[in-house]
Amino acid sequence: MGGYTVSEVAKLSGVSVRTLHHYDDIGLLKPADVGANGYRYYGKDELLRLQQILFHRELGFPLDEIGRVLDAPDFDRVAALTAHRTRLQAQARRTRRLVRTIDDTLAALQGATTMDDKAMYRGFDPEKQAKQEAWLVDRYGPEIRKSIDAVKTVQKDWKQADFDAAQAEIAGIEAGFVCALADGLPADSAPVQALTGRHRDWIANQWPQPVTRAAYKNLAALYGEHPDFHARYEAQAAGMTEYLQAAMLAFAERELT
Amino acid sequence: MGGYTVSEVAKLSGVSVRTLHHYDDIGLLKPADVGANGYRYYGKDELLRLQQILFHRELGFPLDEIGRVLDAPDFDRVAALTAHRTRLQAQARRTRRLVRTIDDTLAALQGATTMDDKAMYRGFDPEKQAKQEAWLVDRYGPEIRKSIDAVKTVQKDWKQADFDAAQAEIAGIEAGFVCALADGLPADSAPVQALTGRHRDWIANQWPQPVTRAAYKNLAALYGEHPDFHARYEAQAAGMTEYLQAAMLAFAERELT
DNA sequence: GTCAGGCCTCACGCCGCGTTAGGGTCAATC
DNA sequence: GATTGACCCTAACGCGGCGTGAGGCCTGAC
Q1: What does the pLDDT average to over A112-119?
Q2: Which of A44, A71, A100, A114 has the greatest number of CB atoms lying within 10 Å of its CB?
Q3: B189 φ, ψ (degrees, to nearest 5)
Q4: pLDDT (mean) for A26-55
Q5: pLDDT at position B22
């Protein structure tokens, strides 16, 4: 009863023979059978397990954690994935910061501009911002302060380049909603929900805390209640606020937890 | 003439004493002075150099490269930073893809959809794909085969989640172009160029090779010449192909090298 | 003189394998 | 049955960037 040899598995899966040896050594993937000559033979089950391993490895899990995750029930798997998602996002934010820093360094090296602190808040009139903050505290109570402070810290870290990129991104997303609204697409239709997914991602990138279902729904409510947000969306298209809210609520129900 | 001791430098800079030892060992940061007792003493110059080292380390440069960069003239430094920026951006793209994959996996785990091998190629009718491939080889010569094979390998690696996410992403981007075209925005205007940037990123995610200016321009040409692409874009809006091409060409000239 | 708290130099350990080095096994061909 | 060449094995070092000891010298305060 043959089974696959190391090099066959290697070819099928794309990993090296050495990697298979290694996984055997550390007990992550044992062959189904070992011949009297010491040859390793793998079966279908092992191929499936290897697929799982590679998937998690792709996601950046350390090998020992992969072992634990694969040998644990589904429940733990969800938790592990969620935790890992958080790590990845933190890393993504960090990477963006680094790119920005490089841009600034390059600018400075090339003798161009010294940074202009005021321009950094371009698009956010400071007076308005203060008012908005007061309004939020008034509306949601003092515990929202933490979040606001967190956002401010994040914003201080920001440099122009990032700011521009984020602005462009959200502008594109909002343009998509305007277009969808004009085309009469229902807010819970697939394309609009895909767009809403991008919106959620954008929010997740700005916001230092996980975007839960409740948080996203709250945000939708905020868009309707806060005059500045409302004005912003209505300026883009009549009924835009309501449309966006509907899309967000549908998305929250279907995709978030 | 005192100078700072290891622990003083450590406290000032935030690195460990061991790290200073290490940097001394590998010749990255030598003390200004070594006492008869073997004690290391650092001066202001060394503190400045350490700052530079830490800056580059933050950016993810390997230590040996940092050494070379610091001992090089400014223009080399610019080159190194630029190259590193590209690396970081690639990493950021990868991380984003991973986060999306996790999201989709979580959705699947929570009982929604089982992934369906056949559906994986949804949107790419296999017969059409074969035809398209033949056409490409005919048009660009056999050396394009490598790229096609690379893409196929990548596609085989793909899971459903990835595929869906990418489809949603490109659909959103194309919708943006349709909308911009309808609004009469010039193809080289800022918002359209930002959208084009997203398009380039999407291409970069699909394509296993770097998206150079020449490659992107070729792709623009391809969109016009290949009947399937042409049909695809014209189906979304009249004049869409030409519009997209104009945006891509402008982007290539301004942003790519 | 003695104690605490610097400082020093080895040197192993971590992670995920790549990469020799040195040697057995299998199938086909001479 | 002997050779060949493709495949298999184990064992062990190497990388990068230090953390974390172990074991011992220096210095200043009591």
Answers
A1: 35
A2: A100
A3: -75, 160
A4: 88
A5: 94
Cα dihedral sign, B83-A164-A207-A75: negative
Question: Chains A, B: CB contacts under 8 A, how many?
Answer: 108
Averaged confidence pLDDT in chain B: 72
Structure tokens at B39: 């004690």
Residue B12's identity, in one-letter code, is L
Would you call A89 and B99 a contact, using CB atoms and an 8 Å cutoff? Answer: yes
pLDDT at res. A146: 42
Question: What residues contact residue A82 under an 8 Å CB cut-off, 6+ apart?
Answer: B106
Q: Residues of B at the A interface (Cβ-Cβ below 8 Å)? A: 58-60, 74, 77-78, 81-82, 84-85, 88-89, 91-92, 95-96, 98-99, 101-103, 105-107, 109-110, 157, 159, 168-169, 171-172, 175-176, 178-180, 182, 190-191, 194-195, 197-198
Residue A225 to residues A135, A151, A248, B86: CA-CA distances in angstroms?
11, 20, 15, 42
DSSP assignment, residue B189?
S
> Bigger pLDDT: B242 or B190?
B242
Q: Which nucleotide is nearest to B22 (CA to C1')?
A: D18
Which chain B residues have a beta carbon less than 8 Å from that of A197? 168
**Rounded mean pLDDT, A168-196:** 80
ipTM greater than cut 0.85: no
Which of A18-22, A61-65, B158-162, B208-212 has the weakest average pLDDT?
Answer: B158-162
pLDDT at B209: 53
Q: Do B194 and A105 touch (CB under 8 A)?
A: no
User: Which residues have C-beta within 8 Å of that of residue A195, sequence separation ≥ 6?
Assistant: A173, A176, A177, A180, A247, B172, B175
Residues B157, B159, B164, B166, CA torsion sign: negative
B191/A180 touch (CB, cutoff 8 Å), yes or no? no
